[in-house]
Each structure stands twice: as C-alpha cells, then as structure tokens.
Amino acid sequence: MWVRxxxxxxxxxxxxDDAFVQGVNxxxxxxxxxxxxxxxxxxxxxxxxxxxxxxxxxxxxxxxESVSDIDRMLASPERxxxxxxxxxxxxxxxxxxxxxxxxxxxx
Length: 107
Hints:
alpha+beta, Dimeric_a/b-barrel, Antibiotic biosynthesis monooxygenase
C-alpha cells in the first residue's frame, strides 16, 4: 500500500475559512476519489496540537495499492482536469501546498 499526502501549511485567507474547508471537503476530496488508481481519500483537520508541530491547516491522505498507481494517477488526464478545481480552492488559502508519497508497512 502507498499513501500520497498533501500538506496545506498556512491558513485560509481572512474571512474565507468556510470557502476553503468546503472546497477541500466537497470538491477536492470527492474529486480525488474518482481519479484512476485511487483507493480512497480523506481530509484531516488538526484540532489538538502537541509539541509545536508545523502550521498544517489540513492534510489530505490519498491511498493507492502501489506506487505505479500513484504514477498513473499523476499522469492521467482526469488529474490534469482536476487541477483547475484545486487551484480554485487554493485561492482561499495563504501558504504552501506540498506532497509526500509514503510506502506503508515496509522497512
């Protein structure tokens, strides 16, 4: 199993919290679930912080069976089409969006 994690580090623009949260929950996550190779996708919203973590506003986890499924999703026309919807949501956010791909359960 593989996981691709998107980290939204920063915060929604002033007065745009609801638009950002709704965009992630109702546009990005459901859209990710339709992309080729994706098993599931979820948004995580930090509520309790410990030991001074980075300023992560939201983390999106996307699950895949294999790394080749991540590559297939990244190269797909469906993902390219979805980028416009993601960019629309980022208009409500001040900060950085970055990704990490993890192999799960291997050493």
